[in-house]
């Protein structure tokens, strides 16, 4: 059975349709990039996928969804908040427990964020906040990660660090991406959208950046 099987799906917001008759099948273990111009429907499709997968997937939203007054540690810890007893969550809020600190330290270190582990998120740069949101999704106990432009606020080096960490920790990855080069390098399937419809669905290894250029014209 596929992990996801959308058939002629339509979705939108504020009473306006954005996706039109979209069909998409995703198998466990795939790494997929959703590409296309701004407004093509990438974010809407990603949200629709998230609604179908529910708690089987961790999400990196474009707006990050962080608690600015809390530290990087606490924001990452939120990824498992619903899986721990109340007493443990309270303990980690007041005085973080060693096991959680060390596990989360390992994740943020991979994202080159360890020095900011106990810094409040509101004091961090946009790129650091984005890496915190990625860390929270990596900390969630799911095999699937969905990301809405998860490297849009960082430079190329940090983008590659983030994508390598995502691919190392999650077996199934679906990312809405604007950087075609990174999409081709770090995913194995390209799904192209235009005007709310899927107009391309091909193996990444057989494509070049010029093959994707018509999606942006």
Helix content: 25-40%
- CATH top level assignment: Alpha Beta
What is the assembly state of the chains in this entry? single chain
Q: Considering the protein shown, what is the CATH homologous superfamily?
A: P-loop containing nucleotide triphosphate hydrolases
CATH topology: Rossmann fold
Mean of residue pLDDT values: 95
Beta-strand segment tally: 8
Along the chain, the helix and strand elements come as EEEHEHHHHEHEHEEH
CATH arch. level architecture: 3-Layer(aba) Sandwich
Which characteristics define this entry?
six-stranded mixed beta sheet, Rossmann fold, alpha/beta, 36% helix, 217 residues
What's the SSE blueprint?
Blueprint: E1 4-13, E2 16-26, E3 31-35, H1 42-53, E4 57-60, H2 72-77, H3 86-94, H4 98-110, H5 126-139, E5 144-148, H6 156-169, E6 172-176, H7 180-186, E7 189-194, E8 197-203, H8 209-212
Parallel strand pairs: 3-6, 3-7, 4-5, 5-6
Antiparallel strand pairs: 1-2, 7-8
Task: Walk me through what this model shows.
By secondary structure, the protein is of the alpha/beta class. It has one domain: Rossmann fold. It is 36% helix and 24% strand. It has eight helices and eight strands. It has helices at residues 42-53, 72-77, 86-94, 98-110, 126-139, 156-169, 180-186, 209-212, and strands at residues 4-13, 16-26, 31-35, 57-60, 144-148, 172-176, 189-194, 197-203. The strands form two sheets. The protein has a six-stranded mixed β-sheet, sandwiched between helices. A two-stranded antiparallel ribbon has the order 1-2. Helix 6 (156-169) links the parallel strand 5 and strand 6 (172-176). The chain is globular and about 50 Å long. The termini are far apart.
């Amino acid at each position: 059975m596929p992990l996801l099987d959308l058939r002629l799906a339509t979705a939108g917001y504020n009473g306006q349709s954005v996706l039109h008759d979209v069909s998409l099948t995703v198998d466990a273990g795939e790494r997929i990039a959703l590409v296309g111009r701004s407004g093509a429907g990438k974010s809407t499709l990603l949200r629709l996928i998230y609604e179908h997968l529910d708690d089987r997937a961790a999400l990196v939203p474009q707006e990050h969804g962080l608690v600015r007054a809390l530290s990087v540690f606490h924001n990452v810890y939120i990824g498992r908040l619903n899986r721990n007893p109340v007493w443990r969550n309270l303990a980690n809020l007041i005085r973080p427990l060693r096991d959680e600190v060390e596990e989360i330290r390992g994740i943020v270190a991979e994202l080159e964020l360890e020095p900011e582990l106990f810094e409040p998120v509101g004091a961090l740069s946009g790129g650091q906040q984005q890496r915190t949101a990625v860390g929270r999704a990596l900390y969630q106990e799911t095999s699937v990660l969905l990301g809405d432009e998860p490297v849009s606020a960082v430079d190329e080096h940090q983008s590659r660090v983030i994508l390598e960490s995502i691919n190392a920790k999650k077996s199934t990855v679906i990312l809405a991406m604007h950087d075609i080069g990174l999409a081709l390098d770090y995913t194995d399937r390209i799904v192209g959208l235009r005007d709310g419809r899927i107009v391309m669905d091909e193996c990444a290894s057989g494509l070049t950046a010029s093959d994707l250029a018509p999606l942006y014209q």
